[in-house]
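Please decode residue identities from the backbone states below.
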């Protein structure tokens, strides 16, 4: 980690707004990118919204797995809505300015929703572990009260931590350039604009990334290794195929989301490439929320049946 020396007080100027450069290095593709990301945003809203509705309305989708899936779909809508609308506005109007308070607010919501998603993915892995490895205890262990507690914890645990982290970052003095080479107010590019010693902020960033990224990821991988070992012991090939089908979709989501996010936040500063960071951020902030409904619906017979019933009404 590299931390910056604090410049003399005379050189400090208080910045009141930033400029989100986004994809300004591709001026001839601005209209194309606007149309592309607008279509993606509509797909995310409609697909995740549909899953949220059918898991609430269909009597066949009232198990804990679908309770977690409905919360996950709603979380995805919140998560992507923290970044995409502003990016679309910047692409459409070419006015890339964002007030400091708005930038801090966006960062805070991205962190809160991102942290909640990490924890909820781990909770969903635990749900599958109990369902497959301890099926007789499943109704007792994953009762409605426990499910609500797990979801509430996933949403709320990170809120004070993420608010505190955002406050610490925007308590730093900013001087010189106000251009953020990203499409939203993410921590690494904002810290690059800070004057003074950012060592404590970088240490906090790595700590939070480990607690909310690496730890849930390792727990999820450990859970699935246990699930796979149990699945391989099932006597029936049909039972093995059904169990693998249930879990493989969740595992695909986990690898996509955690993989791109962990690489972004846990790489050494010397290996940070702004272009690479933007591409990786597209994966965990936009592409994963778009693919999730397709992965879950196309590989889940119950969801497909519920969709057919909804469309036939």
């Amino acid at each position: 980690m590299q931390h910056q020396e604090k410049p003399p007080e005379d050189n400090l100027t208080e910045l009141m707004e930033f400029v989100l450069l986004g994809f300004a290095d591709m001026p001839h593709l601005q209209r194309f990118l606007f149309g592309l990301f607008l279509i993606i945003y509509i797909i995310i809203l409609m697909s995740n919204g549909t899953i949220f509705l059918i898991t609430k309305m269909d009597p066949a989708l009232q198990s804990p797995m679908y309770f977690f899936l409905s919360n996950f779909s709603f979380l995805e809508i919140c998560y992507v809505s923290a970044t995409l609308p502003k990016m679309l506005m910047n692409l459409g109007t070419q006015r890339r300015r964002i007030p400091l308070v708005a930038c801090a607010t966006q960062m805070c919501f991205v962190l809160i929703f991102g942290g909640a998603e990490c924890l909820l993915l781990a909770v969903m892995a635990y749900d599958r572990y109990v369902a497959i490895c301890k099926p007789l205890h499943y109704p007792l262990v994953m009762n409605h009260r426990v499910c609500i507690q797990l979801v509430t914890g996933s949403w709320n645990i990170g809120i004070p931590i993420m608010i505190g982290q955002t406050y610490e970052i925007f308590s730093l003095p900013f001087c010189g350039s106000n251009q953020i080479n990203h499409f939203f107010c993410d921590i690494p590019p904002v810290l690059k604009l800070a004057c003074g010693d950012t060592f404590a902020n970088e240490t906090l960033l790595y700590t939070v990334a480990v607690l909310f990224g690496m730890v849930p990821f390792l727990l999820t991988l450990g859970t699935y290794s246990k699930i796979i070992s149990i699945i391989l012991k099932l006597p029936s090939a049909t039972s093995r195929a059904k169990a693998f089908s249930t879990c493989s979709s969740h595992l695909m989501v986990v690898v996509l989301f955690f993989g791109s996010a962990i690489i972004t936040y846990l790489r050494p500063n010397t290996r940070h490439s702004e272009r690479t960071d933007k591409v990786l951020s597209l994966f965990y902030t936009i592409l994963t929320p778009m693919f999730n409904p397709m992965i879950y619906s196309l590989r889940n017979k119950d969801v497909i049946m519920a969709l057919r019933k909804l469309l036939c009404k």
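Observation: The longest strand covers residues 17-20.
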